Amino acid sequence: SDVGSQKERVVTEEEWLQKWEMGNIGFHNEEEHPLFQKYLDVLLKGRSGLRIFFPLCGKAVEMKWLADMGNSVVGVEISEQAVREFFSDHSLPYCEEPVPEISGAKVFQSTSGNISLYCCSIYDLSSSIVGKFDGVWDRGALVAVNPCDRQRYASLMISLVEKNSSYLLVTVSYDPNKQKGPPFYVPESEVKSLFG
C-alpha cells in the first residue's frame, strides 16, 4: 500500500500529552503557516464574523489572528498545558468551565468570548456541543490522527461544518516506508475518499 508501514501505527493520548510535557512540540509553529496566509481568502471568502474550527489546535497562533479579525474561534486539544500556554503566550485573560456533556472535559474561553478551546478528545465533540462551523483550519490534525481513525475523524469533521463552509487542509508528502510518523502520510486519493 502507498501508506507503507504506517497503516497499523497508533499514537496514544498519553504519548501526545508527554510530547507537550517534555516540550517535544516541533509541530508547533510560532508564525502563521505560509499556506494559511496564501489561502486565507478561500477560508474567509471576504466575510468576517465567521465560526472557525481548529481540530487538534495545540496553541496555534492563527487562532488569535482570526479572532482579532472579528471571527469566533473554537478549538479542541487533548493537552490542557497546550491550551493554557495559548492563553498565556498571547496574554489573554480566560475562564474555564466543565463541559457538562463530556466527563472530565473543560472549555477555556477568552473573556472577550471569541475564543473557546475545548480540552478533551476530539471524538467526544459533536455539533450538539460545539455547533457548526463556516470554516476549518486543519494544519496538523488529519496528519496526526492515527491512520485507523481517519474515517471516524473525517465523518466527525463533515458533521461539524455548514453546507457552504471552507476546509483548509495541510498534508505532508514523503515516503511512508522511511518514516513512522506522525505526521502521517495521507495521499491525495485518501483525502478525496474521506472528504469527497
TrEMBL record:
Q: Name one Pfam family in it.
A: TPMT
Q: Which Gene3D superfamilies match?
A: Vaccinia Virus protein VP39
Any one biological process term the GO annotation gives: methylation
Task: Report the locations given in the UniProt record.
Answer: Cytoplasm
Q: Does the keyword Transferase apply?
A: yes
Chief location of this protein within or outside the cell: cytoplasm
Record keyword Chaperone present: no
GO molecular function terms noted in the UniProt entry: thiopurine S-methyltransferase activity
User: Which residues are S-adenosyl-L-methionine-binding?
Assistant: 16-27, 56, 77, 121-122, 139
Task: Using the record for this protein, list the coiled-coil segments as residue ranges, or answer none.
Answer: none
Q: What is its EC number?
A: 2.1.1.67
Q: Which reaction does it catalyse?
A: S-adenosyl-L-methionine + a thiopurine = S-adenosyl-L-homocysteine + a thiopurine S-methylether
Q: Name one GO cellular component term.
A: cytoplasm
Task: Report the domain of life of the source organism.
Answer: Eukaryota
- UniProt entry keywords in alphabetical sequence: Cytoplasm, Methyltransferase, S-adenosyl-L-methionine, Transferase
Which InterPro entries does the annotation name? SAM-dependent_MTases_sf, Thiopurine_S-MeTrfase, TPMT
Question: Record's family?
Answer: Belongs to the class I-like SAM-binding methyltransferase superfamily. TPMT family.
Q: What is this protein called?
A: thiopurine S-methyltransferase
